Amino acid sequence: MRRADRLFQIVQLIRGRRLTTADYLSQRLEVSMRTVYRDIAALAQQGVPIEGEAGVGYRMRAGFDLPPLMFSKQEAQALVATVRMAESRLDAALARQAENALSKILAVLPLDARAAAESLALYAPLPALDPATSAHLTALREATEARRKLKVGYLDLGGVRSERVVRPLACLFWGPVWTLSAWCELRGDFRSFRVDRIETLQALDTFRDEPGKTLADMNRKREAQEAGGA
Q1: Phi–psi pair at 109, nearest 5 degrees
Q2: What is the reported pLDDT for 70?
Q3: Which of 22, 94, 105, 180 sits at 20 to 30 Å (Cα–Cα) from 146?
């Protein structure tokens, strides 16, 4: 990587995180810590407002920005491939936004990069989500973002129907199936629900994160269970 490209990447990495350590930059850029320190000093001398110090971490002062990014042919192709793979797996609303975002990016690319991206012979011809699952996925995603409880009518794989009040935490994609990870008020524990098995959804009041009921808590519990079973 040319030094100019590396300096640009350092700026991108620092401004994309709340605090960035030299060790992280060293690993991402595959250079020595000494090189990172030297590059940080060079950026500071050029007027880039990087705050922080060695051994603590760096951050970008608020208000700093760079000109619009340009993408290489390979980067543009990666964006096209990602959107094509995602569109059939996303709910309709988010799939449209992904296509809109890609169109905006392609519109400002140089002609050769745009042509290479649009002619990429890589597709993901999987069946789209059925309308009910797509609509439920939209509602679940919006409720997760808004921190809104949901009343869920659910039909499990054994054919048993139940009604739950849940705190939606995350939507996860497992190949052909989407699941909702949530805190279940009925069970008093974390539960996963297949989105295509949800029959009804009703938005309720909002909730605040509570200790023991968050996505981070769920992940820690899962990791502890996996470690215990290893």
Answers
A1: -80, 155
A2: 64
A3: 105
